[in-house]
């Protein structure tokens, strides 16, 4: 009897106790959140957060918002807080003072599906695997010695660009095609040991056109705002169809990379006095090293290889195309560049990489192009690895962190007439692009800074210098400079929306073009 009469009381007690616990937990959470001093930002909508405020060019939408909410702003993309730094001071805090805290990368569908489940360098989380990858970049892949040893490749490929343009003199040319062929061939020969994607190679399993399309798709898919990344419970619907495209793309890349690794492994096995000749060889050597701190698996070698091919191809071509476009809009600047080239180099030879430090105006054009058209306008997203405070505001662990270098490049407090393409602003100024001048960060800064920046810069500077040294440039069909469209499209890189078409005429003695 006693037990039966006490049962309902016990249940009621349990139920009340549980309810009280839930209420206390909810109140505690609310109380904790209330106490958080989050950076200012627009009020988020339920479910979508602030995604409704993002236009087709998110860096521009975010720029507009930062004019209202200030240099440290918090947005919400679906379920995730996103903090944006938009000033030199904030860039310095995020990329230098608190670099270790913000050295993570968010988990995205692109990282999962297109980079072998985050096994590449760009999307791998901060930790021993990524640290080892960066060490390899520093010591093996991009050491000054190795880059110098590949100079002959860069020269040969640039020569074929200059020759190709000579053959098309007087006719409209699609500059980007020429530029991405050079970049692709340079990086392909350095990383894979040969052009691989040579039209004339009967064994080639992929055409250059197809491969460039794959790289364009990779850059686009790595830069898009995929709804499933922001609203995980909608992920399975793949509303924009991006995940499907990622899976198709990764299959294509994998087929190609498998072929590359098989060929390299065969040579390692068959050649008597085998020595490593290219970056894939170096990666395979490292993968077979038993003393490596963290094992590098076959899929890791493929992921790194793809990263290097992608990082090395698109960005340099995009930057040179923007530079020539800006000059065509302000043709009087061609004269300043050629005056310097004629004075320093003369009319009897081409420009070499070693000449670049003697060509401050060319360097200034490159910097000005990177200020106005940074390839990655908000760098690559980072992720807070722990709760922390920036400028007195609370930033929660897992927050995605962007640095809007596009906004910094347009800050009127830093740049006079920021909308104007004016390379002279850099002449005689001690500002470089190597990650310590926070007003100009096209390669980022800190631990996650672009490891390929010195290669990228070499290709951009020497290609641009020779394009200006060797050719006169004009717009086709008597197009006026003001009619040249300067719209961009957003992805992981930010190229011209309408590729540049221009007409070139040689400006050096003819015999120099038989390269
Ligand atoms: C114009 C040329 C280039 C530009 C403007 C550029 C820009 C960038 C930027 C902005 C980042 C992100 C930095 C950050 O998160 O703070 C990055 C990362 C990276 N870049 Fe580049 N890049 C260029 C060329 C290259 C080249 C030539 C390679 C390799 C061949 C390369 C490989 C990478 C890799 C692997 C990362 C990821 C680094 C990490 O997460 O630790 N890039 N690049």
From TrEMBL:
Binding positions for heme per the UniProt entry: 450
UniProtKB keywords: Heme, Iron, Membrane, Metal-binding, Monooxygenase, Oxidoreductase, Transmembrane, Transmembrane helix
Protein name: Trimethyltridecatetraene synthase-like
Residues of the signal peptide: none
Cofactor entry: heme
UniProt GO BP: secondary metabolite biosynthetic process
InterPro entries, sorted: Cyt_P450 (IPR001128), Cyt_P450_CS (IPR017972), Cyt_P450_E_grp-I (IPR002401), Cyt_P450_sf (IPR036396)
Membrane-traversing stretches: 12-28
Gene from which this protein is expressed: LOC113742325
GO MF annotation, one: iron ion binding
Keyword Iron in annotation: yes
Domain of life: Eukaryota
Family classification: Belongs to the cytochrome P450 family.
Database matches in CDD domains: CYP71_clan (cd20618)
């Amino acid at each position: 009897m006693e037990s039966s009469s006490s049962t309902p009381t016990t249940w009621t007690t349990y139920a009340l106790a549980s309810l009280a616990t839930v209420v206390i937990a909810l109140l505690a959470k609310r109380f904790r959140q209330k106490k958080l001093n989050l950076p200012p930002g627009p009020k988020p909508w339920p479910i979508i957060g602030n995604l409704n405020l993002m236009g087709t060019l998110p860096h521009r939408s975010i720029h507009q918002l930062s004019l209202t909410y200030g240099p440290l702003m918090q947005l919400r993309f679906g379920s995730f807080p996103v903090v944006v730094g938009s000033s030199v001071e904030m860039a310095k805090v995020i990329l230098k003072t608190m670099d270790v805290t913000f050295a993570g990368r968010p988990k995205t569908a692109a990282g999962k599906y297109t980079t072998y489940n985050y096994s590449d360098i760009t999307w791998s989380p901060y930790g021993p695997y990524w640290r080892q990858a960066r060490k390899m970049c520093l010591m093996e892949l991009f050491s000054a010695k190795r880059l110098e040893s590949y100079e002959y490749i860069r020269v040969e490929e640039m020569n074929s660009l200059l020759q190709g343009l000579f053959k098309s003199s007087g006719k409209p040319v699609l500059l980007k095609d020429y530029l991405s062929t050079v970049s692709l061939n340079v990086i392909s020969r350095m990383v894979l040991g040969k052009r691989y994607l040579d039209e004339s190679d009967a064994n080639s399993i992929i055409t250059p056109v197809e491969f460039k399309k794959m790289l364009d798709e990779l850059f686009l898919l790595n830069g898009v705002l995929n709804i499933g990344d922001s609203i995980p419970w909608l992920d399975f619907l793949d509303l924009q169809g991006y995940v499907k495209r990622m899976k198709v793309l990764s299959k294509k890349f994998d087929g190609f990379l498998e072929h590359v690794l098989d060929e390299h492994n065969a040579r390692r096995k068959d050649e008597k006095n085998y020595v490593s000749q290219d970056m894939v060889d170096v990666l395979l050597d490292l993968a077979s090293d038993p003393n490596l701190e963290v094992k590098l698996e076959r899929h890791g070698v493929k992921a790194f290889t793809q990263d290097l091919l992608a990082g090395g191809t698109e960005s340099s071509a995009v930057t040179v195309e923007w530079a020539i476009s800006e000059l065509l809009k302000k043709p009087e600047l061609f004269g300043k560049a050629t005056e310097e080239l004629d004075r320093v180099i003369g009319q009897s030879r081409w420009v070499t990489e070693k000449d670049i430090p003697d060509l401050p105006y060319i360097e200034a054009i490159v910097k000005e192009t990177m200020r106005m058209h940074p390839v990655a306008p908000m760098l690559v997203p980072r992720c807070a690895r722990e709760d922390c405070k920036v400028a007195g505001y609370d930033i929660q662990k897992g927050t995605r962190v962007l640095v809007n270098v596009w906004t910094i490049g347009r800050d009127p407090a830093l740049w006079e007439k920021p909308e104007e393409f004016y390379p002279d602003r850099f002449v005689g100024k001690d500002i470089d692009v190597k990650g310590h001048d926070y007003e100009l960060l096209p390669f980022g800064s800190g631990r996650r800074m672009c490891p390929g920046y010195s290669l990228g810069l070499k290709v951009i500077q020497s290609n641009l210098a020779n394009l200006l040294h060797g050719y006169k440039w004009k717009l086709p069909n008597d197009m006026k400079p003001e009619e040249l469209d300067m719209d961009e499209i957003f992805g992981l890189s930010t190229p011209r929306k309408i590729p540049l078409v221009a007409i070139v005429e040689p400006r050096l003695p003819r015999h120099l073009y038989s390269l």
